[in-house]
Write a structure and sequence with these properties.
The structure is a homodimer of 243-residue chains. With 243 residues, chain A is mostly helical. Helices cover 73% and strands 0% of the residues of chain A. Chain A is built from ten helices and no strands. In chain A, helix 4 (70-99) packs antiparallel against helix 5. The N and C termini of chain A lie far apart (69 Å). At the A-B interface, helix 1, helix 6, helix 7, helix 8 and helix 9 of A face helix 1, helix 6, helix 7, helix 8 and helix 9 of B. Chain A binds a DNA duplex (30 and 30 nucleotides) through residues 3-7, 12-13, 15-16, 20-24, 27, 48-50, 58-65, 69-70.
Chain lengths: 243, 243
DNA sequence: AACAATATCTATCGTTTGATAGACATTCGA
DNA sequence: TCGAATGTCTATCAAACGATAGATATTGTT
């Protein structure tokens, strides 16, 4: 790759934007991984640059060398989370969109697709330990949105809601942009996602150590029963309205 | 009241545990109110003692005089939140318990009670602006529980879940301690509570400025339809199973 | 091998932090 | 009115913070 200067115009030494040596790439990745842990566990304000550097196994100036400042590292973490989530969700989004190209789908098929969508969402949001460390991060952004939130919303949250709303819209026989469809969709996804911010409450109520394996399967099963009931009666109610 | 010393045994000057003059009570209350705002907006780590003192209109040593340290103020806030929530929820808990003293209640009555329960919960959790500032607080405690969380869980979260589970248990014809009842209950309450941690996502999806007035009514209406459907089919499914 | 570019390090900085000492002000009961 | 108890203030502290300067080490290309 073409060589660039590691010295910025203002004379400060920085990791070249075009990329550097392999060693630098490795160090940068280690810092982000460490930062996700520390920010996730302590939040932005209580995570000190010394904690971050120690966890990453680098010296303090390395944080400035690669990220300009603490805030820059935080945004790099948001970018990382966004990319990781996009990777996981891509197949789900693509398959859902492809399947919905077909105008008329049997109701049972749509319900199956919705249940499968929710199962895979549960696997991603609850089944992966990596998300434990992202919860405080994401929720801090919900409470006081920064530039980091725009990334997460535009590339993760909104696409997930839109894809699910497409399914829900079909089942309710309304456009995905319908307000009731949006509300139903948010509350559908909310039944999975709630175990992240309310994790400790839920674990204590259920007497569970975590949401792994069989316990996650129980969550899915319960949600399946609710969804099957919810969209079964919705159709009956809608048809009674037409008569 | 019997007079006590404002000087602790270690010689440090502190607000007497038994209470002090009216002026001191007023100042303490102002500090807690200010701290709820600041902690709620910035979180524990990013809220400095200088910000807290300024917002309360006191000098720095006042924080130590009344709360020993920053952490002590934080715990005082947790106590305050817990008491405020208990106040709001007391009538709801009492009425629900009293109504369930009656062994056999018509199903329609139980459903109405559940819907009313959820409506009032929505009024408390989403309708009161005061809770906006408590969200970051409560969620930080979910992510990394401290002594503050024990207070909130034991006196607020758990009682709410138990009361709601009692209703859900009746409707599902299972004991409130049943795991499926607990899961259903958590996901029921979750559909309301999710709009707190996922507030910004939900507002952007819905194109709403907030969850006030008519918009809160829309949330309730949507939830009503879901719940009516969910518990209507549950009964049918259960009766078919018996046959 | 040489040298430019990148990467890491030590030492240090100015600022901010949470907290304290002791002086001074106000309140309240006798 | 007086004095004890409570409450507030200024000044200051030690420690920690986020960040920088410039020296030194390593990498990679010619």
């Amino acid at each position: 790759m073409p060589r660039t200067k590691a010295v910025a115009e203002d004379g400060r030494r920085r990791h070249p934007a075009a990329g550097g040596y392999a060693r630098g790439d490795d160090t940068r990745a280690r810092i982000v991984a460490a930062a996700l842990d520390v920010f996730g566990q302590y939040g932005f304000g209580e995570a000190s640059t010394r904690m971050l550097a120690e966890k990453a196994g680098v010296t303090l100036p390395a944080l400035q060398y690669y990220f300009d400042n603490k805030e820059g590292l935080y945004l790099a973490c948001a970018e990382h989370i966004t990319q990781r989530m996009e990777m996981r969700l891509k197949a789900l989004m693509d398959e859902t969109a492809a399947a919905l190209m077909q105008r008329e789908l049997p109701r049972a098929r749509l319900t199956d697709m919705l249940l499968d969508f929710l199962d895979r969402l549960a696997d991603i949001f609850l089944g992966e330990r990596e998300l434990e460390k992202w919860t405080l991060f994401i929720i801090r952004e919900q409470a006081q949105p920064t530039r980091a939130f725009d990334l997460i919303f535009d590339r993760v949250m909104h696409p997930v809601v839109r894809a699910c709303a497409a399914l829900v819209g079909r089942l309710l026989e309304r456009p995905a942009s319908d307000r009731e469809v949006k509300l139903r969709t948010l509350m559908l996804i909310g039944r999975i996602v709630i175990f992240r911010p309310a994790r400790e409450t839920a674990l204590r109520v259920l007497g569970w150590p975590d949401f792994a394996g069989d316990r996650l399967a129980l969550v899915k099963k319960s949600l399946h029963a609710q969804v099957a009931a919810e969209f079964s009666v919705s159709r009956h109610a809608k048809q009674r309205g037409r008569t």
